[in-house]
Amino acid sequence: MRVFIAAVAIAALGGCATVTRGTTSQVQIVSEPTGATVRTSMGHQCTTPCTLQMSRKDEFSVVFSKEGYEDQTIPVRTQVAGAGAAGFAGNVIAGGIIGMGVDAATGSTLEHVPNPVSAVLNPLPKPRPEPRGRTVRPRAAAPAS
């Protein structure tokens, strides 16, 4: 009987997205030009191009900054992935109600969008040079008579 219960448990987990996909994903971060400093709302930091390991259920924003360029912020959201939905459905087929709960709690059925996170940074406007004109000099005081 114990062997049967163990076999049913293993079969239920086999369709579980948490087991097949994991609870984290790699998010690629790229910019044009490269070498931008990246900070996420989750506290991660890197220099482009880079890859961050993120929890599948976390939504966050990515701020790109580079000297001489405007900062750019890109939101990263989550959505149900095709493979995640298949793993979740595998729970139904295998009778894994517990697996369905685990998948929902861990976010293993989700993927980050966009991935890769890509930014094209805009150069800051160059300051206008001071106009070159005649310099007005104060007049000297007239001699006293």
Protein described:
The chain is an alpha+beta fold and 145 residues long. The protein is built from 4 helices and 8 strands, in the order ααββββββααββ. Residues 3-15 and 84-88 have low confidence and may be disordered.
| Low-confidence blocks of residues | 3-15, 84-88
What is the chains' assembly state? single chain
The secondary-structure class comes to: alpha+beta
Give the helices and strands as they follow along the chain. Answer: HHEEEEEEHHEE
The largest sheet has its strands arranged as 3-2-5-6-7
Can you count the beta strands?
8
| Count of individual helical segments | 4
Q: What characteristics describe this protein?
A:
3-stranded mixed sheet; 145 residues; 4 helices; 28% helix; 31% strand; 5-stranded antiparallel sheet
Quickly describe the structure.
With 145 residues, this protein is an alpha+beta fold. 28% of the residues lie in helices and 31% in strands.
Secondary-structure map:
Elements: H1 2-14, H2 17-21, E1 24-32, E2 37-40, E3 45-47, E4 50-55, E5 60-65, E6 72-80, H3 82-94, H4 97-106, E7 110-113, E8 117-120
Parallel strand pairs: 1-8
Antiparallel strand pairs: 1-4, 2-3, 2-5, 5-6, 6-7
